Amino acid sequence: MADLVSHPDEVKVISSRWGKGATDIDRYLELDGYKAVQKALTMTPDAIINEVKASNLRGRGGAGFPTGLKWSFVPKESAKPKYILCNGDESEPGTCKDRLIFEHDPHGVIEGAIIAGLAVGAKSAYIYLRGEYRYLSIIMQKAIADAYAKGFIGKNIFGSGKDFDVYWHGGAGAYEVGEESALMESLEGKRGIPRIRPPFPAVVGLWGGPTVINNAETLAAVPAILLMGGQKYADLGTPRNGGTRLFCLSGNLEKPGVYELPMGYNLKKMIYEVGGGIQGGRGLKAVVPGGSSTPVLTADEIDIAMDFDSVMKAGSMLGSGGVVVLDDRTCIVKFALRTIKFYQHESCGWCIPCREGTDWLKKTLTRFHAGGGIKKDIDNIKYLADNMLGRTFCPLGDAAAMPTIAFVEKFRKEFEDHLEGRPCPFAEHGTISQLPVLA
Amino acid sequence: MKFSDNLEKWFAEAQGHYPTKRSPLVPFLLYVQDEVGYLSDEAIVEIANRVELTPLEVRNVISYYSMLRTKPIGKYNVQVCTNICCLQRGGEDIFEHCKKTLGIGHKQTTPDGLFSLEEVECIGACSWAPAVQVNYDFHENLTPETMDAVIESYRKREQQ
């Protein structure tokens, strides 16, 4: 069980039931559970979609695509069954929010999936959970069984004459499976390799049927949206970025944890007030604002609003909401190496720019960090990453390239210092300032 | 090859949840591995028959997922995360400490077959770093000292 934290600035919508025993279905009902589904059953599919559109809810997996719009892409008539697929294969370094959602509010996800199903005309939902989270799969399976026992899912839900099934599905360790088309492949019992698009999942998805794929956090927000109204939820955030966000604060902070804050919350305030400042009172060097795939921000670039549009304007991405804080002892070359090591390990190997690119980047950065670098390497690292960008079937290639480019561009001096400091100037002394100043 | 009644029950039920035979393959592989210890040749043939694939097709799936293995390991698999958030909070020190304490390296097993050690990618414990997963148990906010206590608790479990 992961520890819960809290801060007065939090606005608890998704996390409102955390720590209140809501895994128990009766307790969940006491806390307004399944009221949103009952409301949805009185609404037309278009009315549900319009409510979600009004909420300005954008996909919490990373891309930030408007959820209501995504749902509206599903064709009304389909010869094949339609499906809802909940992406709970959370694996982006820096991100650990879905874990708490499933641990504390599994029925919230089920309820969100049912409402999504009612909105697009699907009769079943699959909740795909990463394999490492075994204790959560037990919680989830119990929640599903309890919901069946109460008649909230299955045949004739809430006596409405409508049927809706919810199934749990477990992964077995693969970051790539978090990509929506790879997720479908994995659920179909195959290697989790992405599909070529178009066609998009909303038209041709699971087993050829139209499929809505939403992140666990996105679905968990849906019941609250229906109950409070789309506009009220939207007003919690900023224009075009409705509601709240689960921010996973990690790295060198005094009070790391998962906090639910309004969209647009200031990053600097998030670090120094919510997160309690830098561990041990040290200096801040950089922040990775939205999970390992998002370009790093330097210490003087953090006075920004944390919503999809503002972070993009600042040259990075809000991504999956994983804020990783780096103190002044951090060796950026090593941090870049560890980041790329992850992407090299997780590349599915299908397309060459990603498979070969991540491998060459890892090899070059390993040699460079160990003291075997040459000046030309610095430009070569950036050149390699530049040539991966936008040239792969799925976003994993970009996810590896974007942070690498930012590390070299924003901390070039540190890469240059490694050529003189050999092997790593941080290894012994902790800070690079103790190096001789080089011409 | 026979699987436990529980596993048979789960598989029979799970197959009814999907329109194709092979769909529950990934969780099925993991559950069989949990029961057998690893995906033996015999287990792979049995699984292939159940989902109407060739053993080669099943192996093709196994080789993709980092949690699936075709060789036995120790009873307790100590998986140390050294990814960026754990790195920032001493994950590498924990890994080095485990190497020393257990006397083994990455993907090795102690001679008594009790522990295996593995450096793994992000396990979703970023806000509670540094973190270690032993089989399916999470251990978080670790120091070398508390890591020793974790290892000791599994040793004790064996002596009981």
Question: Which features would summarize this protein structure in a list?
Answer:
heterodimer; A: 439 residues; alpha/beta; Rossmann fold; Ubiquitin-like (UB roll); de novo design (two linked rop proteins); 3 domains; 5-stranded mixed sheet; 4-stranded parallel sheet; 18 helices; 11 strands; globular; disordered C terminus; B: 160 residues; alpha+beta; Arc Repressor Mutant, subunit A; Glutaredoxin; 2 domains; 7 helices; 5 strands; NuoE_dom (chain B); EC 1.6.5.3 (chain B); NADH dehydrogenase activity (chain B)
Explain what the structure shows.
- Chain A: One of its GO terms (molecular function) is NAD binding.
- Chain A: This is NADH-quinone oxidoreductase subunit F.
- Chain A: It catalyses: a quinone + NADH + 5 H(+)(in) = a quinol + NAD(+) + 4 H(+)(out).
- The complex is a heterodimer of chains A (439) and B (160).
- By secondary structure, chain A is α/β, with parallel strands linked by helices.
- Helices cover 43% and strands 12% of the residues of chain A.
- In chain A, helix 5 crosses helix 6, helix 6 (106-120) packs across helix 9 and helix 13 packs antiparallel against helix 14.
- Chain A is globular and about 75 Å long.
- The model of chain A is unreliable at 431-439 (pLDDT under 50).
- Chain B is elongated.
- Chain B is built from seven helices and five strands.
- The mean pLDDT of chain B is 96.
- Chain B has helices at residues 5-15, 25-36, 41-51, 55-62, 84-88, 91-102, 144-159, and strands at 76-81, 108-109, 115-120, 132-134, 137-139.
- Chain B folds into two domains: 5-64, Arc Repressor Mutant, subunit A (Orthogonal Bundle); 76-159, Glutaredoxin.
- By secondary structure, chain B is α+β, with helices and mostly antiparallel strands.
- In chain B, a hairpin with a 2-residue loop joins strand 4 and strand 5 (137-139).
- Chains A and B meet through strand 3, strand 5, strand 11 and helix 13 of A and helix 2 and helix 5 of B.
